[in-house]
Each structure stands twice: as C-alpha cells, then as structure tokens.
TrEMBL record:
Annotated Glycosyl hydrolase family 13 catalytic domain residues: 139-497
Family in the record: Belongs to the glycosyl hydrolase 13 family.
Compositional bias (Basic and acidic residues): 670-680, 695-712
Organism: Candidatus Eisenbergiella merdavium
Cited SUPFAM superfamilies: (Trans)glycosidases (SSF51445), E set domains (SSF81296), Glycosyl hydrolase domain (SSF51011)
Highest taxon, organism lineage: Bacteria
GO BP: any one term: carbohydrate metabolic process
Location of region: Disordered: 596-712
Cited InterPro entries: GH (IPR017853), GH13_cat_dom (IPR006047), Glyco_hydro_b (IPR013780), Ig-like_fold (IPR013783), Ig_E-set (IPR014756)
The protein's name in its UniProt record: Glycosyl hydrolase family 13 catalytic domain-containing protein
Amino acid sequence: MTARQQIKTYPGVPYPMGVSVTRDGRLNFAAALRTKEECGVLLYLKDRGAPVRLPFHMGKKVGNIYCLQVDGLTGSDFKYNFYAGDEVITDPYAAVIYGNEKWGRRVSPALKGGICAEGFDWGEDRPPMTPLSDSILYLLHVRGFTRHISSGVEHKGTYAGIMEKIPYLKELGITAVELMPSCEFLELEREKRQEPTMEEAKKRYMEDPEAEETPRINYWGYKEGYYFAPKFSYAASDHPAEEFKSLVKALHAAGIELIMQFYFPPSVKQTYILEVIRHWVLEYHVDGFHLLGMKVPVVLLATEPMLGNTKLFCEEMPCGDIYENGETPVYKNLASYNDSFLYPMRGFLKGDENMLPSVLSCLKRNPSQAGVINYITNYSGFSLADLVSYDGKHNEENGEDNRDGSDSNFSWNCGAEGKTRKKAVLRLRRRQMKNAMLLLLTAQGTPMIVSGDEFGFSHRGNNNPYCQDNAVNWLDWRLAEENGDFLAFVKSAVAIRKAHPILHCPEELTMLDYLSCGFPDLSYHGEEAWKLRTDRQSRIAGLMYCGSYAKRNRQEDDESFYIAYNMHWEEHDFALPALPEGRTWMRILDTFEEETAEKETEKDAAVRAAENTSDGLGTGPKDQGESETAEAYGGEGKHTRVPGRSIRILVSRGQALPQKQAGPSGSRSRKADVKEDAKRPGRGKARASRPLAGPEKDRPDEIQKAGPKDSE
C-alpha cells in the first residue's frame, strides 16, 4: 500500500489557519492562497523521498482559504509545505520551522513547517501581571546573553541558557525580561557593500565571474520572519516550542514576566499581526509585546478583549483613539516606548545647557491611561559603557566604512577616546555610569536596562552592531566581577526603587498638597528651598518626594526622599526643606561616594562629616539597597554640598510626619514654586565658577588635575 493510499482526506474547516488537530484526532490544513493553478499540501514523510501531494480540491474552499483534513498522521510523522502550481510555499502559520536549525548555516532549498507536540505541562503557571509602575525591564538577545564562554551556563546562547541565569536576574531585581526578535528568521543575508567602481567590478569579474556574494549575519533579527514559530537555533534541544514554554514557565515561577519584540514590515497584514499576538498569549503564556513597524494596528490590538491583561508597547500609544471620554483602564497594560527620555537625559548627563526643563518633565512623566518606558541606552546606539567612553561611533568592523549607525549619540568620552589607563578619566566614567543609572531608576516611568549595562559591557564603540555575532555582542560575564562595585551599586539603586512606592507611583504626581500635610507629593528645590532655577545655564535640581502620598505594603506611609542632581562640573550646595521636629535627612546613596572613599584621609572625612552633619542625628532602620554609612541633615536652613557631576539620594528618617504641618509658605494646598531666575541665589552659593564651558569645549576638573603624568 502506498503512502498516498494510507492517508485519508476529508473536507476541512477554514479556521484556525495553518495546521491544527481536530477533536477526533485529524489534522486540519488551512491556507490562504490567491491562485488559479492547482494548489494543495506537500507532505514530507519520514523515510520517503518525494513528498506526497494532496490537492486542495479534495477538500473545500471558503473565500481565499483552501482547507482539508487528513487522517492517519501524527505530528512526529511529517513535515509539510503548501504548493500553488510550481511554487512551494512555507506556511506563515507554522508552529515549527525546519531547515534553519543551526545558527549561521545555509538553509535547505525549502524550509518546511511542522506542528508542536501536544500536552505541555503548564502546572500551576500564572502570569505575574506586575503593574507597570512596579516593573523593571531587562532587554536581552537570546544568543548574546549567554553565548560567551564566561557565561558559566551549560546551554550557551539558548532559551535554556536564560533559564540558568534566572537567579542572577532575581538578584538584580528584574521583573520582566524583554527578548529581541525570537521568532524564526533567516539570519544569513547578502553582505552590504559599497557600489564598486568600474575597475573593481572588472577585477572581480575577471577573478571569478560566478563567485557568490559573501553572506553575512543579521544578528538582531529585525526583519520579516515566521512569526508563529520560536527560533529553532535558539533552542538547546530539538524541540524549540517546548523549550520556549519551559522558559516562560520558569520565569513566571520566579515572578518574572516575558516580553517579546516583534518587527512587522509594512507588507504584513494587520489581521495577521493580531493572530500572531493571540497565538503567543494562548500557546506560550507570553506576558507582553513590544511592537515595531510602521503599520502596527495599535488600536486594534489595544481594544482586543483577549489582550486586556497583556502588556503592549509601541512607539506612540494613541490613547485618544483607544479610551473614550477620558476613561482610565482597569489594568494599565499599554505604554509608549521611544527615545523621548534618552536624548534629554544624555544631554543633561554630559552637562549640556538648557536641558533642565526637559529633564524635569522626563523625571515626572507618568500618564494615567498609558505608561512610558524609559531608557538611556537601547539595542541600537552606544551601550552605557560606550556612552561615557566615545565621542563618535567606531563601526569599521561592520564593513560599511563607518557610514552606518547614527551620528547623533549625545555621548562624551570624559577626556579620552576609547580605552585608557588614565585614572581620572576612569573615575569620571564610572561616576557618569552611576549617574546615568540613577537618572533612569529615579524617574517615575518604567525603566528598561539593556543587558550588560549593569556591569559595564562595551560594544567597543560600535553603535550599530547588527551584524556582529562575536565578542562585540556576546556579554562578557567576567566584567560582573571586574566591575563588581558598579554592579553592586545598580543592585542597590534597583532595590531602593522597588522598596519605596513614592519613587514609582501608579500615576503622575500632581505637585499639590492635596492631603494638607504641609508638603506636596513632589516639589522642586535648588540652592534655595522651594525655588529652582530652570534657565539655560542651570544644571542642578533637587526633587523632594513626600512619602505621605504612597503606602508601603498598603499600610504605612512611605518615607520622604530628596534627590539632588548636580550635572554641573562644579560642586553646589542644595537647600533642604525643613522637616518636622524629630526627623532628619539621611544620605543613603551617592554616586561620588566611592571616589571620596578612595581619595580622602580620615581627617578629611571628619571635616566633611562635620560640615554636613547636623545636631540630633538619627539613623533609623536601613532598607535594602541603602548604604551602611549615612550622613544626617536636619533643621531649617540646612544644605547638602554635592560634588560636580554627581547625584545624591537622601531619605527622611525619624518620627512620622504630622497630619497637619504647615508648608514653607503656610499654605495647605499649593503647587511647588519653580522660580526661573537668571541670577544666582545668594543663599548657599557655590564656589566661583572658572571659565569652563562643559565637555564639548573643555575637560573636567578631574582630568585637568591629573595632568600629563597619567599615561595611556
């Protein structure tokens, strides 16, 4: 009996698309084909040469969808394609894609589809559904995250490798992992080359007229793919679907969500995109999606009832078209994901003028209908270490004569381009990296950290490493130990943010004292309390967050915070708002603290402590992430002196704030005053400024003091 005679066919149903198993165990094939030629299914059976052809006319057609059912097969017996005339078509709905199982190798002449094994044991799996306000996102590339030999995992560069790193993610404080494209795509592409001259073209032809272009790797995967199938070469086993499900299940057990990135070019139909998202939610329990592309149907997806608890991120969220009459969502699952945070913060970080108004807006921004995803680095552009080490891009390894990648990086090398041994430069870079992390983690939106930034991984100045499947992109985990002090700092900053709800509120703060407690929820300060200069030359800001407006564990008031941002190259005195009797400001985190510990003698430390410490010290209980040593500041008219290019976090400790405490102007309900004044306040004046215009013109104090003794 032939294979064709063993297979029985029946009329099919037009939905779901692709291949599905019916209740009676048959396989239903459905394909949308616009053709007048004969079309059908090609079955590639085990141990058989030519495929079995099953024409669709044996089934039925609904609209442009052809369908038929097959009896006598199981999922492990076959692979399949569709055909229309002489054209072989790989099913865009295939749950598994065969023919591209090994990363970076040429695919077979035609990819083939397959189906997933049934019966995955999800157990008690439940989505964490972490609110956006409580989320810490972590962007990673499946292959690059653990491919390096230093990763210490058994299954390098795979979904299983990520599972082995879950304890690290938990320790870091991550609540959601965002995967760069992880559906099946063809990574081998023709190499991009500059158009050859006539002489070069003639020489190439004379040497080998039939030579093929050298393929290159599309490492990132932002291209059209097979969106229903997880990427086979990212699996350690021969069962990518099951391994991906195991990853989701393991992350959920650790309280971590999984967000997937998808890039959809304009040619992809909008209804197909909706089916893709539904598939990954139902089949893989994925928690959210970052959608990239010019024609993503955001409103369609955002209003789909099935996705009401699924996080959806896109460049701009059109809330006016999604929510009627200003309504707010029951579960805030939508967020805008763009560079609006990145550029102002980078400019502020390197000391550009006229950045403060935009920075204050970014720190406060937190709309009620949709969240905002904040980041200071992303997969494209400089890594955090490169942001403070390079003035310009160095993309020569990409083979495009350094023409690719953005020229607008808003970066500053701190006095030396690339690698250096100058201690002053290295100290400043380390401090700038800490400043960048605190700018990100003290903003009210949802922070996104790029994998490797937490321990100073560098792409060697390449701001567009889309084709680098090597150590340029593979995380070097030895840096986690070499830069352990910085990694510990990041962990502390994340822990402080997570422990205090006033630092990540569900909605935007109002800057009003609507509790009549004497303090607004957010207020701005500078060299004078309750007054902040926002003119072009101002590079400092003190933000007070009143803990009475947030509850810890939904019971007790949170503590109040004062965050002093000084991105000027000179030190400044920050005026501290007077606290009620019995409370003091305690310093818990400082980006300059490590340098102070390295340089100052015991006598210097005693003098500094005497200058900054008030009478009536009170340490109070120490929360997770806070420094063991804390200076206290209390009473009216007190200041904290913050060194140039550094950030200091103070917390209010002591007895609880009284319910009726008059504010600085005696008002019970008012907006914090922001004074735009070109004149320097007389109170708490910083030391006289020298003629220094910032990183774009001169080098900072640390480098000027280092002199020529430091060598490369």
